[in-house]
Amino acid sequence: MDSGSISRLPVTPLPSSASRRLAAVGRDPINLHRALAHAPALLAPVLDLIHALRFDATVSRSLRELMICRIGQLEGSEYELAHHLPMAEESGLDAEQVASIAEWQRAGCFSEPQRAVLGYAEHLGAGAERDDEALDKCFGPVEQTELTVTGATYIALARMLRALDVRIDEPLLR
């Protein structure tokens, strides 16, 4: 990979439809979008799914970011963590919580719903046993479905990022 590349594939222009979609929600393209630009017909639904998770879900942003960060850790996705650890803090998680995500089972800084989300992330990303009682106590069917789609989507994204060897975006490296 040369120093000007963003992934193991050559750079290609972002489709205008993707640029418009990102602009509509006030986002600049990131290296993930640029890497997927080789397949515009697939990039569009990926963007739709990511944006639905970000803007249309009923589960709080902080719980979704908690799920995404734990999935990023389980998948070893430095790219996802570079993007989502700051988002987790912006969404309301405090510094102790962000620093304790990997050791959440021993940390005393997480609420019951946060612990249910982290346990569910372990189920989705590492095959741990699912704690239906904790999930049912904290979340209804809609929220459990949103958490499932969030976790599964970010597992898939982590694997795309790894397979395409997508570099962390330059501003996040500083």
The level of helicity is 55-70%
With helices defined by DSSP (H or I, 4 residues minimum), what is the helix count? Answer: 10
Q: For this structure, what is the CATH homologous superfamily of the largest domain? A: AhpD-like
Shape: globular
Number of strands: 0
Tell me the distance between the termini.
20 Å
Please tell me the total number of domains: 2
Rg (C-alpha, Å): 16 Å
Q: Can you write the helix and strand succession as a string? A: HHHHHHHHHH
How much is the average pLDDT?
Answer: 95
- CATH class of the largest domain, please? Mainly Alpha
Return the structural class. mainly alpha
Sheet with the most strands, sense and barrel status = none
Please name the CATH architecture of the largest domain: Up-down Bundle
Domain Carboxymuconolactone decarboxylase-like: 40-122
Organism: Glycomyces mayteni
Protein name: Carboxymuconolactone decarboxylase family protein
Strand and helix layout:
Elements: H1 16-24, H2 31-36, H3 40-55, H4 61-75, H5 78-90, H6 95-99, H7 112-126, H8 132-138, H9 141-164, H10 170-173
